[in-house]
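Reproducibility note. Readers wishing to regenerate the assembly model reported in the main text can use the exact inputs given here. Chain order matters: entities are listed in the order in which they were concatenated for prediction.
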Amino acid sequence: MKITKKYIFTFSQKMANKPITYQLIKDHNLMVNILNAEITAHKRSYLLVEICGSEESLLSGIRFLEENSVRCEPFKKQLLFDENNCISCGSCTGVCYSKALIQDKSDRNIKFKAEMCTACGLCLKACPLQLLSLNFNSINQHDYRK
Amino acid sequence: VSDLSKSKSPEEIAATVDVVTTATFGPMCSSGAFINFGHADPPIRMEEVTLNDVPVCAGVAAVDAYIGATSESAQNPKYGGAHIIESLIKGEDVELQAKAKGTDCYPNQRVKTRINKDVINEFYLFNPRNAYQNYAVAVNSGNKTKYTYMGNLLPDFGNANYSTSGELSPLLNDPEMRTIGIGTRIFLCGTQGFVSWYGTQFNTSKERNSFGVPVGNSATLAVIGDAKQMDPEFIKAAYYEKYGVTIFIGIGIPIPVLDADIAKKVSIRNSQIDAYIVDYGKTEHPTLGKTNYEKLQSGKIKLNDKEIKTAPLSSISKARKIADILKSDINKGNFFLSDAVQSFPKNTSAKPLNQE
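Running the prediction on these inputs yields the following structure tokens for the assembly.
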């Protein structure tokens, strides 16, 4: 049975020139979809990926990365949405192209689907109550979209 | 009632429906609160006043002040008058600092203390311009994101933002303002308030569509109510990126269905309310087209064959909640509809500011 999971890979400068996604595909038989990335020569870099494969492939792929000092964190843990204070204005939905933040057509409340999120970070600035945050340093430190 | 009108005539609606409750909950920059701090001993004629480092307008007598919602802290521009108002409503303490030159009758020159809603005298919201009757939809044709009071507008028509609750919006349900005027009792941020005056930039000369509603931003309301009684669920401080501080205000207005004409007006549907699409990517904000609230609320509109994702700025879910609360308060006899003391002026327009 195939499973699909999202991970944030964080790695240091010396790993930046190694083709880790190529190895995940070729050696570990995983489908890799890069959703977001920031590769910087002088500091830590990250990849936000969705990987799909059998449980064994996934485990061996992650083991390979960790042996090579790539930190692998399941992506879900990184997203923070203060839903209790949300007024459901809808501003965030206008900038959310991955449809992770959507307005329910019937009750008009904002629904957040963590599994759809690509961590583009646009919603952080769109929310007038600042209820969204990415618990991820690279994104918080500087806006890679500029 | 908009749904009811599909099967019933205005005459039938007028005979069966007594009141329609309308509401809106959106960012309304032109808001603020009057506050009276009480006199210190020795007394001070406060001339420069800050609350948590946010400057407030102190040019009204010795210890009166006006907290403008959009006034911002010099230290933290994301924090402003709106946050002060929200904190005071919640019962939180804020720091008051006041300076004065000192006079014979008010010798004190400095005050620094903490205040909250229980130790101050009057504290009431007085918003000069709320509840815009209609508002243009914002898009951005440029190649960079525009950070505006209409939210973040993505480049190359990446999104279209709109504000107003459409068919639920108060002034779109009584477009001629036959039942809404000076003195009308309303729901204001969780308590009962009043329409105190016509709002600033009150403009009744805007083009109307075939259903009698204005296409552009036309009428507005000035409203007043006791902030000490307000519910923080229906008033929220906000900050729009690179624009500034603003405040979400919840307003509910009951419209008595006096006759078939009003029954027809309150039956307005989203598909019958038009709004212009305006390009914030260009300084002169040219109008690019027209759409309606049915399309806007569907999640996408079409402009020159391009499909654009839409997003609201005002909360429909909170507006519905306000309309429901108002309905239940009226049913329980806790909220009494009032006649306007005076109608709003007709044939008004808004003047631009000419620069020398």
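We highlight two features of this model. Strands of chain A lie at 2-11, 31-38, 45-54, 71-74, 79-81, 101-103, 110-112, 132-134. The interface with chain B takes residues 87-95, 97, 103, 105, 107-109, 122, 125-126, 128-130 of chain A (CB under 8 Å).
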